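Ex. 9. Protein: Histidine kinase.
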Amino acid sequence: MNGKYIGIGLMVIAFIAGASLYYLQVYHYYAKVETPDAVQLVSVVTGEPEEIIADGITAIDATSSPIRYRACFSTPMSHSMLTETYQLADGAIPLTAPEWFDCFDATEIGTALEDGTALAFLGKENIEYGVDRIVVIFEDGRGYVWQQLNDCGQKAYDGTAVGPECPARPTESN
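Predicted structure tokens for Histidine kinase:
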């Protein structure tokens, strides 16, 4: 058999595999959320999530991972009122969203967090084991939501012993 046919065949298979992998990661697993969750922030008084005023919520999610949730919204609430009422989130690092979900720009959000024109709040702790919901609100009222691993989640998923400061991991029932 001629080697060029084998080479061409391998290249075609590699192209199909690469295109399939790209499609699965960027489009297949994500879906628009028809009725997004209300935006919540954790109260400094009660320690419990409370719904805030949020307009125009658009969101995407995937069942393949708890950290694929992304949402965009707007709110009339000011930074000064929010910081007095709700718990700030430490270590908020925006996770990228697929390019087709164009309202969510992780680079812009990260820059705004660094320069102080946006503030990160804790939306809900342990929405799933080791995963917190983070809500970022810009001075102009634009808001963004994503889920990221907290310290316990990072330890649990990288194999490090979680220690007594982390809650017990839920057992899975069959």
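Check your answer against this statement. The first strand starts at residue 31 and ends at 32.
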